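Appendix C: a fully annotated inverse folding record. The material below is reproduced so that readers can follow the format used throughout the book. The structure is listed first as tokens, followed by the designed sequence.
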């Protein structure tokens, strides 16, 4: 059964297998990899420390560091298999307003084209009003047709397509209410 769970050191080996499907240095949006040197994550101790940092990033009483924002992270899993990650950024800084948005997600290459991004985004949209958000910004590469579809299926309204410091981006807004997302048929746990 596919579900969203809090990051856990229990899935270290599955996470490593997923990481190895990505090209070296590839960006995995929503995974929180900027909090650690990815090469060190082979170590169980470093991996456990990184998982703890992911948890701490959601605590508004703890500082998150310069140019960072508080965010809640979830992993998309099926049993003991890591399929991807999604995060909900509690607010936007200038960088996120321009190129990142409130929600970031990535699906491991072998698990794509199964509707996981659409489902996970819908599940996380239901959590956003709990942070006081009444709408969220989602941004994807102009060439990322799969991500654009996931956003549009969850009610994304295209604001514009613009050139940014890191490429051409599609910017969508999703208004939140009690029925702000698609119906999830999988389990969501916090």
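Designed amino acids, in order:
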């Amino acid at each position: 059964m596919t579900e969203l769970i809090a990051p856990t050191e229990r899935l270290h080996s599955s996470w490593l297998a997923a990481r190895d499907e990505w090209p070296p240095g590839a960006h995995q949006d929503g995974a929180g990899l900027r909090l650690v040197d990815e090469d060190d994550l082979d170590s169980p101790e470093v991996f456990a420390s990184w998982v703890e940092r992911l948890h701490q990033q959601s605590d508004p009483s703890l500082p998150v560091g310069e140019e960072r924002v508080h965010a809640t992270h979830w992993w998309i899993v099926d049993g003991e298999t890591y399929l991807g990650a999604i995060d909900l950024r509690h607010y936007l800084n200038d960088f996120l307003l321009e190129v990142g948005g409130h929600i970031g997600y990535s699906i491991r290459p072998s698990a794509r084209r199964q509707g996981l991004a659409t489902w996970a985004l819908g599940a996380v949209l239901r959590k956003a009003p709990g942070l006081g958000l009444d709408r969220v910004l989602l941004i994807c590469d102009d060439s990322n047709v799969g991500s654009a579809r996931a956003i549009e299926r969850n009610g994304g309204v295209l604001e514009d397509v613009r050139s940014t410091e890191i490429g051409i981006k599609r910017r969508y807004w999703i208004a939140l209410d009690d029925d702000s997302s698609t119906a999830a048929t999988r389990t969501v746990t916090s």
